[in-house]
Design brief:
The protein is an alpha+beta fold. Helix content is 66%, strand content 9%. The chain is rod-shaped, with a radius of gyration of 41 Å.
């Protein structure tokens, strides 16, 4: 809740009460001049100037506090000010019984804070102020015991109504909170589902399906503004690793090599676990020779990496690389890349096969 904004609105409401009182007093003064000229002096001072000055002083003090004091307890001063405004208006107008309804202003203010303790405080302050007024002979003469009891009952009723509003507000707030939590959980579930469907669980690389979706989207772009190469990377002798050291070691090798490939590609490139021990890479926005050099550097780094789980032995990879040329569809890309990967395997492994104009 943006409490300073609401406090500003409440304070503006208090100033409105002050100016409305002054306006009503001015109208009363005009009536007094016309109907009872002898009463004008008393009315001018005791019904208009003095009460208006007191009201301006009360609300002005709160205005200064609002602008200078940064305290979370300032709401209590707003409730006290509402009670002081009501007390001042009623005190200077003892014969206007309708003015006693001003004491409900404190309860109305407390409702703005959605706090039952504040509402109870406002009710007790209003009843206390009402009883203090009875010490004045003018107020004693203007109200019967029945009227006092009725006014107290009205203030208690206003308090109970305020509590009902606060409880209803709490209920709506809880419902909104639950709805937001449900929406958040749904969003998390969607993100998790999206992650599960797009990523490979073992290596955290993109999976086969996501790779093809991304490649399809790239192939729809204008080739004049996009250079694109596709590479297939296969771990050499991976079956022997699984058979000799176990599949759990094979998984470690897969994750380590996946990390090395991803770390040495640029942000413009895309890598996925294509299946088994095979990875697929899309390189964009680079010349063919640059992409070839990048892949050869990755091959060298992998070949130099010693795996403790393999008794400090090394692992090598073979790579087939192809560049997208006009008229070359996705199937042709994969057919050519796969053929070059097979050639790398057949001619000794641990190498990159692919030239720009090779068919």
């Amino acid at each position: 809740m943006n409490q300073p904004t609401w406090n500003r609105m409440i304070l503006n409401g208090y100033w409105t009460v002050v100016w409305l009182y002054l306006l009503a007093a001015l109208l009363g003064l005009v009536f007094a001049i016309v109907q009872s000229p002898w009463w004008v002096g008393f009315y001018l001072y005791h019904r208009m100037l003095i009460p208006t000055a007191v009201l301006i002083g009360i609300v002005g003090a709160l205005e200064i506090a609002f602008r200078t004091v940064k305290s979370p307890r300032l709401d209590i001063w707003f409730i006290l000010t509402a009670t002081a405004i009501a007390f001042t208006v009623v005190f200077y107008n003892p014969n206007l019984h309708g003015m006693y309804a001003m004491f409900a202003l404190s309860t109305l203010t407390s409702i703005m804070y959605f706090d039952r303790k504040r509402a109870l405080l406002s009710c007790l302050l209003s009843i206390g102020a009402l009883l203090v007024l009875q010490a004045s002979p003018e107020h004693q003469a203007s109200m019967t015991v029945y009227e006092i009891i009725a006014m107290i009952a009205m203030l208690i009723g206003a308090y109970l109504l305020g509590v009902g509003i606060i409880l209803r507000g709490d209920q709506l707030r809880n419902q909104l909170k639950k709805a937001m939590e449900s929406e958040r959980d749904l969003l998390v579930d969607n993100i998790m589902y999206d992650t599960i469907t797009k990523l490979d669980a073992l290596t955290s690389l993109y999976n086969h399906k996501t790779f093809h979706e991304y490649l399809d989207s790239l192939l729809k772009l204008d080739l004049t503004s996009l250079r694109l190469q596709v590479a297939l990377i296969d771990i050499d002798n991976f079956k022997m690793i699984n058979d000799t050291y176990g599949h759990w070691v094979g998984d470690i090798v897969l994750k380590r090599i996946a990390l090395m490939i991803r770390e040495h590609l640029t942000p413009n490139d895309f890598v996925a676990r294509y299946g088994g021990e095979e990875f697929a890479v899309i390189l964009t926005d680079a010349e063919f020779d640059t992409s070839w050099a990048t892949l050869d550097r990755i091959r060298e780094l992998i070949a130099a990496e010693k795996f403790e789980e393999l008794g400090d032995h090394t692992v090598t990879v073979s790579i087939g690389l192809v560049q997208r040329e006009p008229g070359l569809c996705k199937e042709d890309l994969f057919k050519t890349a796969d053929a070059r990967l097979y050639e790398a395997k057949r001619t000794g492994k641990n190498r990159v096969v692919g030239t720009l104009h090779e068919s």
